[in-house]
Structures are given as structure tokens and as C-alpha cells.
Specification:
Elements: E1 3-4, H1 7-29, E2 34-40, H2 44-60, E3 63-69, H3 75-87, E4 93-96, H4 106-112, H5 124-131, H6 140-152, E5 160-164, H7 171-179, E6 188-192, H8 199-203, E7 208-211, E8 229-232, E9 236-237, E10 243-244, H9 249-252, E11 258-259, H10 266-286
Parallel strand pairs: 1-11, 2-3, 2-4, 5-6, 5-7, 7-8, 8-11
Antiparallel strand pairs: 9-10
Length: 301
């Protein structure tokens, strides 16, 4: 049976490190880092996610504010509110909880966030810097996956990583991260999507398989190379109420060398990396003008 990659334990360790740095920052700056969360509509899952993120902020000493709006909020009014948060010196990070109502264009809202406060990592400047290998922030879920791989699939250099899914939230940024000339990257990356031909043959060739397509139990045991490391980003609710990932856990765990569970795998790491990015935003904003960005750490801790 595969070794279980415990996302809760890893996230707890990461949050302890962030809490220590928040304490040092707050003592030096005379203020705590601040995160503004924006929730549009009454989507139950989104409300739960925001609550969990704000609770995590409180636990590490980050101040958070919740800005709630009705589902029929005009896009122009949301953009005006984002502009206010951009100008607020107490706000280091801005989180727009997705999904947004259909009439609001996510890419327009993401582009409106001050890049210095783009702690989700979805804005065009943030992703552009990542493409160049000069990231200011790493998108939260891919960052969490990367740290998991550093601990459980190292070394990554030259290994074949197959990513199922090409979303702007997980698949694309994770591929960019793993391709970088970085001590903890340098992988050979294949991205599969809905138009990929015979994608199970590609997943069977992977040293590392990351599933992020939002299709429950899509990846079966015969689609995985024996000894591969499997990261399941998906979270899906079945008709009977069970939460499952994109991977058929019981089958794949018999083949893989290591695997993340759902729940308790990637999800906790996503929140931990949001805390990391909010603190990093506060630290960067506190640097004197003209100071060079010290850069991202090479790995966890």
C-alpha cells in the first residue's frame, strides 16, 4: 500500500512557521498583516471556504475582513470595491472567493487587483512573472502541491510529471513551476486535457501524477505506473454525500508509492499557502523603496 501524504500535518507545520514569522513582522512593523476576503452571493461551499480561511488567519495572527455582497452585484461595483481595497494601506492581500456569479468576469476582476496584493496568484502580472521564472507569489494550490512533492517525490529534476487538467488555478501554473530551472524543479512535464488522445497511456508513464480535473474517481489503478507518486487535487461530492477526489483512492493506493487522501490532502495546504502569501505581501510592502525582492524560499521552511 502507498504511503499516505498527510496534508493536514504538513499544513500544520507550515502554519506554525508562518505564525512565528507573523509575530516577528508584527513586532517590527507595529501592525499585523491583513487579508480582505470578498464574497459575492450566497454559495454555501464558498461561505465555508471563506470561514475556514479567516479562521486560519486568526490562528496565525493575520487580521482578516469579510466583505459580503449580494449575487446581483454589478461587476462595476465589485471593481470599484476592489479599487478601494487596493488603496487601503491596512490591506496586504485581497482574496476574491470563486466562483463569482455568471455576469461577473473573473479575469477582469483578477486583473483589477493590485499585483502587490494578489495573494491568490491569479492575476496576469503574477502569472507572467511566474512564466519568466521571477515569481512574486505562487498560486496557493500549486504551491502546496509543490511543497508536497519536495517532501515526497524529490528529486524532481528530470522526472516525468503528468498533470491532468489545464486550469489557470492549478494545471497551468503548476506546470510552469515544475519546469523552472530551480533546485526543486527541473521536471519534464506533460499536461493532459479533454482533447488529449489516449491520456491513460501518458499517466502510466508518469513518475509523478497530479489529478486536477474535477471528475470524481476518474483515475483508476490501471492508469498509474507502479511506484508513482499521486497527488489528488480534486474534491467532488457524490450523490450519497461522500467527498472523493479525482483518483479512485483504494485502487490507486495499491499501485502508487505515495498518495494524497481526499479530504485531508491538498486542501489544507492551499489554505496554508494563502497565509504564506499574505505574510509575504506584507513583508514586501514594508521594504524600503528600491529594495530588491529577496525571492521565494527554495523549499518548505
Amino acid at each position: 500500500m502507498a504511503r499516505i501524504i498527510d496534508g493536514k500535518q504538513m499544513a500544520a507545520q507550515q502554519r506554525r512557521r508562518v505564525a512565528e514569522r507573523v509575530q516577528r513582522f508584527s513586532a517590527a512593523a507595529g501592525r499585523a498583516p491583513g487579508l480582505a476576503a470578498v464574497l459575492v452571493g450566497d454559495h454555501l461551499a464558498s461561505r465555508v471556504y471563506v470561514r475556514n480561511k479567516r479562521q486560519a488567519c486568526a490562528e496565525v495572527g493575520i487580521i482578516s475582513w469579510l466583505h459580503e455582497f449580494p449575487a446581483d452585484l454589478p461587476e462595476s461595483e465589485l471593481l470599484a470595491h476592489v479599487a478601494q481595497l487596493n488603496a487601503d494601506p491596512a490591506v496586504d492581500g485581497i482574496l476574491i472567493q470563486l466562483p463569482l456569479p455568471a455576469h461577473i468576469r473573473e479575469h477582469v476582476v483578477n486583473a483589477a487587483i493590485d499585483p502587490a496584493k494578489d495573494v491568490d496568484g491569479f492575476g496576469p502580472e503574477t502569472l507572467g512573472l511566474l512564466t519568466l521564472g521571477q515569481p512574486r507569489f505562487l498560486p496557493c494550490t500549486p504551491h502546496g502541491v509543490w511543497l508536497m512533492l519536495q517532501q515526497h517525490a524529490a528529486p524532481l529534476a528530470g522526472r516525468h510529471v503528468v498533470i491532468l487538467g489545464r486550469s489557470n488555478i492549478v494545471g497551468k501554473p503548476l506546470a510552469l513551476m515544475l519546469l523552472q530551472k530551480h533546485p526543486q524543479a527541473n521536471a519534464t512535464v506533460t499536461v493532459c486535457h479533454s482533447q488529449s488522445r489516449d491520456w491513460p497511456s501518458l499517466t502510466r508513464s508518469a513518475d509523478v501524477l497530479v489529478a486536477a480535473v474535477g471528475q470524481p474517481l476518474l483515475v483508476r489503478g490501471d492508469m498509474v505506473r507502479p511506484g508513482a507518486v499521486v497527488i489528488d487535487v480534486g474534491i467532488n461530492r457524490l450523490a450519497d454525500g461522500r467527498l472523493v477526489g479525482d483518483v479512485a483512492f483504494d485502487e490507486v493506493a495499491k499501485v502508487a508509492s505515495a498518495i494524497t487522501p481526499v479530504p485531508g490532502g491538498v486542501g489544507p495546504m492551499t489554505i496554508a499557502m494563502l497565509l504564506e502569501n499574505t505574510l509575504r505581501a506584507a513583508e514586501l510592502r514594508s521594504l524600503p523603496a528600491g529594495t530588491l525582492d529577496p525571492g521565494l524560499p527554495a523549499g518548505p521552511g
